[in-house]
Write a structure and sequence with these properties.
Layout: E1 2-8, H1 15-27, E2 32-37, H2 53-64, E3 70-73, H3 85-95, E4 100-106, H4 107-112, H5 119-125, E5 127-131, H6 148-157, H7 168-176, H8 187-195
Parallel strand pairs: 1-2, 1-4, 2-3, 4-5
The structure holds adenosine-5'-triphosphate (ATP).
Residues 8-11, 16-17, 20, 105-106, 108-109, 131, 133, 163-164, 166-169 line the site of adenosine-5'-triphosphate.
Length: 200
């Protein structure tokens, strides 16, 4: 099977995530794209997640409901401490030897890729599929501290996905200041946030 993995904190999951997952599902003819919910993101520069992992996982499940071909991968949330993409990809490939993995990353994450644990190995274990995000251009590929071939294949694998100007940070701020978040998250995710008094 051709499986897409979209790694992130999903704190909370929003329409930008879903639009990207659906675009890559179609563009790369994948069987499924799973939101890979992080336990504690090693890529977040020490930012603590505003919602505990069980809430982020529950919201991710609500966010993909009704979207055929989208799912949730919870293998990182069962591990303690930081989870690194290279370890996750190794474990998934070992458990499902027949699968091909496609790892989706937003443009902001591309710039950070050289700082990941074993970035070159990550790029061997999965086909990395970058997507653009408002505020970023193809310049993210310039000067990346990765081999020439790795950078070339990242460029070639870019998928044109809808660029929605939304982020989890903005949504958390909106909840905290009493603004509406209806335009940015699924109704079930909004209800969950309200019911559990997240981000207030
Ligand atoms: P935060 O604001 O808390 O950093 P976020 O909105 O960036 O959150 P994450 O869960 O950190 O969401 O991101 C998961 C993945 O989704 C990352 O690869 C990120 O680049 C990508 N992503 C998030 N929002 C968008 C968007 N609007 N368009 C394209 N990619 C996005």
């Amino acid at each position: 099977m051709r499986i897409g993995l979209f790694g992130g904190a999903f704190d909370p999951p929003h329409i930008g995530h879903i639009a990207v997952a659906e675009a890559v599902l179609r563009a790369r003819s994948l069987d499924r794209v799973d939101l890979l919910v992080s336990a504690q993101s090693p890529h977040a520069n020490g930012k603590t997640n505003a919602a505990p992992v069980q809430h982020r996982l529950a919201m991710a499940r609500l966010a993909v409901e009704g979207h055929a071909g989208l799912g949730v991968e919870d293998c990182e949330t069962e591990r303690h401490g930081k989870s690194y993409t290279v370890d996750t990809l190794r474990a998934l490939r070992q458990a499902h030897a027949g699968n091909d993995y496609f790892f989706i990353i937003g443009a902001d994450m591309v710039a950070d890729l050289p700082n990941w644990k074993e970035p070159d190995h990550c790029l061997q274990l999965a086909t990395f599929v970058p997507v653009m995000r408002p505020g970023f251009t193809m310049q993210v590929f310039e000067g990346l501290r990765l081999g020439h071939q790795a950078v070339q294949s990242l460029r070639l694998n870019l998928v044109q996905a809808p660029q929605l100007d939304v982020s989890s940070t903005r949504i958390r701020q909106a909840v905290a200041s009493g603004e509406s978040i209806r335009a940015w998250v699924a109704p079930a995710v909004e209800s969950y946030i309200r019911a559990h008094r997240l981000y207030v």
